[in-house]
Automatic annotation (TrEMBL):
<comment type="similarity">
    <text>Belongs to the glycosyltransferase 2 family.</text>
</comment>
<feature type="domain" description="Glycosyltransferase 2-like">
    <location>
        <begin position="7"/>
        <end position="127"/>
    </location>
</feature>
<comment type="pathway">
    <text>Cell wall biogenesis; cell wall polysaccharide biosynthesis.</text>
</comment>
<dbReference type="Pfam" id="PF00535">
    <property type="entry name" value="Glycos_transf_2"/>
</dbReference>
<keyword id="KW-0328">Glycosyltransferase</keyword>
<protein>
    <submittedName>
        <fullName>Glycosyl transferase</fullName>
    </submittedName>
</protein>
<keyword id="KW-0808">Transferase</keyword>
<dbReference type="InterPro" id="IPR001173">
    <property type="entry name" value="Glyco_trans_2-like"/>
</dbReference>
<dbReference type="InterPro" id="IPR029044">
    <property type="entry name" value="Nucleotide-diphossugar_trans"/>
</dbReference>
<dbReference type="GO" id="GO:0016757">
    <property type="term" value="F:glycosyltransferase activity"/>
</dbReference>
């Protein structure tokens, strides 16, 4: 069942054991996808281990930690029409890459297909799956699943051309909720995003993570996205709401300080979304407000 339509891109930083496990799973897939690993300046021997144990993998070493922008580096170099992202602690289930490629083949206006996320080792659904499955975003009748307002990079197959046309991940956001801005820009370009319940990716969360830094970046990036793309009145209300509701701690204070310090470039790059895309995002507000699965903004 070799399938040449999709390249899998994995970004990694100092998670050698988890990455080698992921590469083992990807090597066993019936689709036999091309795999590109972007090593974000690991210091634990990750690059050498990949070269030794998985010589078939294309290894990129940018020499510094690019965060999510490491995916941009990889997508610029691939030649397949589709790219599947996964993290170094997640892997695609057999047949899911081919299933996503089939959906993208069949629907030319579809940019992303997000899979069901199963958390290992217990095999339970990630809490976010229910929100994806029941997404309130209105979509066209041809869409093969629920329309989404955003996507989760580690569980999504994308049309590579759409990704490049939208500019990929913004270099300033680095990592933490970086998908929201790209998703909005894809929608502004006329593309649609969907969830496919019959496709699966497995996620076994790494114990090597800085949850405080991730939350800081998540809050900061939420503010930046709001200021970059949402109407002025909404942006002000959203900012005040976040100021009232995020945890009152050093991480939140740092997030607001970093966001505010960037106002000059944010204002230079500000481009409000088209009214139809803004209306689409507004339908998500009640679900996001009541969400128990979203952790970036508290």
């Amino acid at each position: 069942m070799t399938d040449p339509r999709t390249t899998v891109v994995v970004i990694t930083h100092n998670r050698r054991p988890e990455l080698l496990r992921t590469l083992g799973h990807l090597a066993a897939l019936p689709e036999r996808p091309q795999v590109v690993v972007v090593d974000n300046a690991s210091t634990d021997g990750t690059a050498d281990a990949v070269a030794r144990h998985h010589p078939e993998v294309r290894l990129l070493r940018p020499g510094r930690n690019l965060g999510a922008v490491g995916r941009n580096l990889a997508v610029r170099q691939i030649r397949t029409p589709y790219v599947a992202f996964c993290d170094d602690d997640s892997w695609w289930a057999p047949g899911s890459l081919a299933g996503a490629a089939d959906l993208l083949d069949a629907h030319p206006a579809l940019a992303t297909v997000t899979a069901r996320i199963v958390v290992e080792p217990d095999g339970t659904e990630d809490p976010i799956v229910g929100e994806l499955r029941d997404s309130p975003v209105p979509g066209p009748p041809w869409l093969p699943g629920p329309a989404l307002g955003s996507f989760l990079a580690a569980a999504t197959v994308l049309r590579a051309g759409a990704f490049r046309a939208a500019g990929g991940f913004h270099p300033r956001l680095w990592l933490g909720g970086e998908e929201e801005l790209l998703a909005a820009d894809l929608a502004a370009g006329g593309w649609w995003l969907t969830y496919a319940d019959d496709l699966t990716i497995h996620h076994q969360p790494s114990v090597v993570r800085d949850s405080t830094l991730r939350r800081t970046h998540g809050i900061r990036n939420t503010l930046w996205f709001t200021w970059l793309r949402r109407p002025a009145g909404y942006a002000l209300r959203r900012t005040l709401h976040l100021a009232r509701t995020v945890p009152r701690d050093t991480a939140s204070l740092r997030a607001f300080a970093e966001a505010a310090a960037a106002l000059p470039w944010v204002l230079r790059e500000r481009r409000v979304l088209p009214p139809d895309v803004e209306a689409r995002l507004r339908t998500l507000e009640p679900a996001q407000r009541d969400s128990t699965a979203r952790s970036y903004t508290g």
